[in-house]
Every structure is written in C-alpha cells, then in structure tokens.
Amino acid sequence: MGISGTEVAKESSDIIILDDDFTSVVKVVRWGRSVYGNIQKFIEFQLTVNVAALVINVVAVVSSGDVPLNVVELLWVNLIMDTLGALALATEPPTDNLMKRNPVGRREPLVTNIIRRNLFVQALYQVAILLIFNFDGVRILRLQNESRSDAEKIKNTFIFNTFVFCQVEYLFFNNLRIITEH
Predict the structure, then answer these.
(1) Whole-number pLDDT of residue 133
(2) What region holds the Cation-transporting P-type ATPase C-terminal domain (predicted)?
C-alpha cells in the first residue's frame, strides 16, 4: 500500500497502490484480469486473421500460381482491421464476474487450449469459404461472360471483401460469446 507501506516494500514491488483502501486492491485485481482477458482475445483475433490469410494465399499459390489477397490488401487488413479489433477488445470494461474466475499463475500459457480450439475452428471456417470462392468463384459469381482478367479481378475483390466481412463477423460474434459467458 502506498501510504503505510515501507520503502523497501515499495521499491521491490511491481505495482504500488496509492491509497490504503482495500477496495482499491479489488479494483486493481479486476482491471488486471480484464486487461489479461482482453490481451488473450486480441491474440486470438490476430492469430485467426493471419492464419486464415496465410493458408488461403499458400493454397492458392501452390494450386494455381495466383494469390487472391495481394500485399496491399493484407496490409490494409493488418492496419485497419487489427487496429479496430484492438480498440474493440481493449476498451471492454471489467465486469464483476471476473472476480469469480480463478487467478492465472505466472507459468500459465497465454494461448490456452480454448483459444487454440477457437482459432482452429474460425480459421478453418474462413479458409473453407475463401477457398470455395477462389476455386469456383467465377461460376458462383456468374462471371463466365467476362474477360479472364476482369473475372479474376472481380473474383479476387469479392474474396478480399469476404475476408474482411469474416473478420468483422468474428469480432461481433466473439464479443457476443464473451458477453453471454459473463
């Protein structure tokens, strides 16, 4: 505690609470757990976006020699979507239900089995949709009458927009899942 604590204790601690009120300790723990949970959610989102983008581009290059998501589009997704995702996840206020959770130990992994499962399922879902459009998009979008280059441009634009909408959907439904858990 900041007022009645000894100087030795203050110097060796990571956090100093400026008042001696016990409710401040509860607030600090609640905020700490909230920040930790938000970091986990952001890492889950980041990994999902990047795994899906990597897999769709690698599979497309190996199979057809053409990438559906070019460098500028990937940069846009990383700058815009990740910034908005970080803001959405970082500004989530702590809830009282956080205090019902068990504390997380220092040796606990940041990426848990639940995060790995969510990452796998969501990335698989996105990759499946994007690969369907990549391999059969010309027929699905009825672009057979277009020139080959125009059909490819339209198909790749559609794939990019679908990829962005998948990220928005992921943020929206992931936050709904988290809200309903509390």
Answers:
(1) 93
(2) 67-172
Residue 78 lies in a domain: yes
| 56 domain-assigned | yes
Residue type, 113: N
Number of domains present in the structure of the chain: 1
Q: Within a 10 A sphere around the Cβ of 85, how many other Cβ atoms? A: 21
Provide the residue range defining the domain that includes 109: 44-181
In a domain, 19, yes or no: no
Name 27's Cβ contacts closer than 8 Å, sequence gap at least 6. Answer: none
Residue 89 in domain: yes
pLDDT tens readout for residues 70-115: 899 888 888 877 777 677 667 777 887 888 888 888 888 989 898 8
Give me the sign of the Cα torsion angle 8, 13, 18, 19: negative
Q: State the pTM of this model.
A: 0.77
